[in-house]
């Protein structure tokens, strides 16, 4: 029986990184790299959310809004 590998979403990755950083068992030399990765993922997630908000905002205009603007 084969187990397929599951790709983690950026949100799931960020959750794991936060848990690792909160753990006292994390070796000190891993901390700077995980902090960088946390910042990267947070920025990536925020950019994705911002793009989705912009897309929704653009689509929510009605015909008359486009016609008179």
Structural commentary:
It is built from 3 helices and no strands. It is mostly helical and 69 residues long. Helix 1 packs antiparallel against helix 2. The chain has one domain. The model has no long low-confidence stretch (mean pLDDT 86).
Would you count the extended β strands for me? 0
Report the mean per-residue pLDDT as an integer: 86
Overall shape: it is: elongated
How does the helix and strand content classify structurally?
mainly alpha
Quick tags:
69 residues; elongated; mainly alpha; single chain
Outline the fold blueprint.
Blueprint: H1 10-22, H2 31-59, H3 63-68
Short structural description:
The protein has about 70 residues and is an all-alpha fold. Helix content is about 70%, strand content about 0%. It has one domain (about 10-69).
């Amino acid at each position: 029986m084969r187990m397929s590998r599951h790709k983690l979403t950026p949100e799931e990755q960020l959750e794991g990184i936060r848990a690792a950083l909160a753990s006292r068992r994390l070796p000190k030399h891993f901390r700077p790299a995980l902090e960088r990765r946390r910042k990267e993922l947070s920025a990536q997630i925020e950019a994705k959310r911002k793009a989705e908000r912009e897309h929704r905002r653009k689509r929510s205009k009605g015909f008359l809004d486009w016609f008179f603007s």
